[in-house]
Amino acid sequence: MLDEVKGFWVTFRRLFTPNVTIQYPEEKRQMAPRFRGLPSLRADPETGEPLCVACGLCARICPTSCLEMTVVPSEEGDRELAEFILRSGRCLFCGMCAQVCPVDAITMSGEYELATLQRDGLIYTKTELAAIGAQNLGWWDADTQDAR
Ligand code: SF4
Ligand code: SF4
Description:
It is a single chain. The chain contains four helices and five strands, in the order αβαββαββα. By secondary structure, the protein is of the alpha+beta class. Strand 2 and strand 3 (about 80-85) form a beta hairpin. Bound molecules: iron/sulfur cluster (2 copies).
């Protein structure tokens, strides 16, 4: 009998404590600064130009080879990034691509809603990654450098 009373008491006490759950997806939690969501591309906030210098280090270090890029000669005779593909179905969210990038052009965004019914939906292009990068400040953003 005592055990039943104890059980009811635990339930009764919970009626007067604040909720810890939220109404997802209407409500969303702020992700921790070091949360590693989808890798995304960053652009110069003043010019809007992608920061990527097409060095290929991120693709080379990626343990699952899920990054792919097309590099073309630029008008100045330098290298220019034509396309940047991320196959997110293979991504481990390890963050090695962001760590190795010499110009902080690729960052781990806070994006985690990646479910899709189409396999093609797992493939992100340069434009899509740049759009996510513009919305989600990652580890490497100047404001969150201390979160490295
Ligand atoms: S987070 Fe890791 S697995 Fe994903 S693209 Fe970057 S290096 Fe590759
Ligand atoms: S490491 Fe950085 S600069 Fe080099 S290709 Fe990847 S995103 Fe671009």
